[in-house]
Amino acid sequence: PIVVRETGKDTFELIMGERRWRAHQKAGLDVISAVVRETTDEDLLRDALLENLHRSELNPLEEAAAYRQLLDDFGCTQEELSERIGRSRPQISNTIRLLKLPPAVQRRVAAKVLTAGHARALLTIENAEIQERLASRVVAEGISVRQLEEIVRFADESPTAKSQANQPRATSPRIAELAHDLSEHFDTRVKVDFGKKKGKIAIEFATIGDLERIVAMMKQGK
User: Fold this and answer.
1) pLDDT tens digits, the chain, 222 residues: what are they?
2) What are the boundaries of each domain within the chain?
3) Contact 162, 144 (CB under 8 A)
4) 8 A C-beta contact, residue 134 and residue 123
5) Which residues are catalytic?
6) C-alpha to C-alpha distance for 27 and 211, rounded to whole angstroms
7) How far apart are CA 121 and CA 138, in angstroms?
């Protein structure tokens, strides 16, 4: 059942179970099982945040923001939050650290073109400019988390010979430059192949929302 609280005579506010509620609406059902709970606004906020945390579609930045809000608004420790939501304290701590990344890098994590693993590797670098530059390379060149960790470990922005062997070679410096420009523009990985008679551009996207964002940018010419 969904969970609601009474706000007036025969009126209720949904606390938990939004997806179940929407599924019933979509199915055209007039009745849904519900539990009526007496709760304060503070408890309502906490329950809403906890429900959001258990949604699989949350990206790492949304998850980090939810953790941060729970810690700030309810004055609990990471250990207490860990026990409450059933996730390890190191996992909570490492996720919250993602909020320290520069905005440009956070956007790529939110768009899911950078993984949480990539983001954690970038956090070991203190220079925000280098973080952004490496994030751009990860997206443009498809650098793996392991390769990025190698780059960071040796304080060198060039992958090792073994890593480079796994990278696709551009047909020309100009094509590589244009592919990089497109990757920067769309905040995602773009691959450009140029054959003898024609070329092909492949633009990666993580979600339908991400695809809609890219298409909107194309239409607006931004």
Assistant:
1) 777 878 888 888 776 677 778 888 888 888 888 888 776 655 666 666 666 666 656 788 888 888 888 788 777 788 888 887 778 899 889 999 999 999 989 988 888 888 989 999 999 998 999 999 899 888 888 888 999 998 888 765 554 444 444 444 444 677 777 887 888 788 887 888 777 778 888 888 877 888 888 888 888 875
2) 101-220
3) no
4) no
5) 18
6) 28
7) 11
Residue that the structure tokens 């701590």 belong to: 93
Structure tokens at 187: 């905040």
What is the CB neighbour count within 10 angstroms for residue 215?
A: 12
* CA–CA gap between residue 207 and residue 132 (Å, rounded): 22
Work out the angle at residue 209's Cα, subtended by the Cα atoms of residues 3 and 99, and round it to the nearest 5 degrees.
Answer: 75
Please give the Cα distance from 101 to 25 (Å, whole number): 40
Nearest CA to 82 out of 50, 120, 117 is that of: 50
Q: Which two tokens stand for residue 136?
A: 């751009």
| 5 Cα distance to chain centroid | 32
Query: In this structure, what DSSP letter does residue 99 have?
Result: G
- 77 Cβ contact list (under 8 Å, min separation 6): 71
